[in-house]
Amino acid sequence: MNRCINLDWLEVYCLEPQSLDGTSMITKEYLEKIGWVVTCRDFGTPLYNEVLFLAPSDRPDFIVYEIRRSPRLDSSGGCFVHAASCHIRVRNQMLYTAFPVVALCKFLTETGYFFKSIKRIDIALDFNYFDDGENPAYVLDAYISGKISKINQGNVSAHGLDSWDGRKWNSVKWGSTSSNVTTKLYNKSLEMKQCQMKSYIQDSWKDAGLDLSIPVWRVEFSIKSGLKGFKNKQNDEYHEMRISRFDSRQKLLFLFHTLCLKYFHFKVREQNEDGTFKRKDRCRSKNLFKISLLEKMYEPKTFTANKDITRVDRIILNRCLQWQNRSDIDDATKDSAMVVVEFLEKRLQGYIY
Question: How is the chain split among helix, strand and coil, in percent rounded to 5?
Fold first, then answer.
């Protein structure tokens, strides 16, 4: 079964490094000095004075991070949060590259940010059909009509189109605004057609082998900072919500299935002999996703943002490769040249920026 899993939102809470006098060492000028193209928005947020947008120097049009910093002071001159607080969000396009979490950790380490917690993280699985072959549109209609019922998350909101011929549902969301985890099933193809077509998401679908001639559906779990971790019911082992748990697609799929067991668990509504409905725990489960340890993960290959290879990149890459066959160049230089080759190949493939 062809499926495509990615992060669709990643926002972390950090503390900025401070100098001895208590002022932040992170400024627009400092970030520009270490190689970032920085744009400062004209207005801040209710909590922060500044909003910075960061792009790599070789792709100034490709914004990678959004940083909200410099907490506002209250009327008494105090601050509601730590003076060094900031929120860093990975922009959506960056999340569809090969290793966005690895790149974020590298950025935090190089700049000296102190990671505190995950503010919000969304895990999204895109597919044409459920693993049992069912059309998601039919499953959604079965839920709306009451043929199947969901376990947990009683707050529900649905969207669709009402016409004389009937109602056609295209999305449903479970969980309240205060929930630590919300679940959503929706027609992603229709959403992008109505709102904004994102070529890099379509590229990920192609790489994963999805059929773009029919609707692509998405199941998405949105996790807030209130969820601190997961507990294994069999051995009571506790797994903390660390950012390293999201740094590969294999880990994302494992977490997705973990969340599915609780938040995307459906039951077929069945009746007793007297015509009354059975209790949920006595009805048979409807397993829409199957867990397989042998599942092969897709790797981004045709990501739009990485197609533009500069002439300078090609020259450096070819020159370093040519040096490997020259007898007048020592082994140490050849080894250094291969390090450059590996770096350029990874950057051009979207592994790093």
Answer: 30, 30, 40
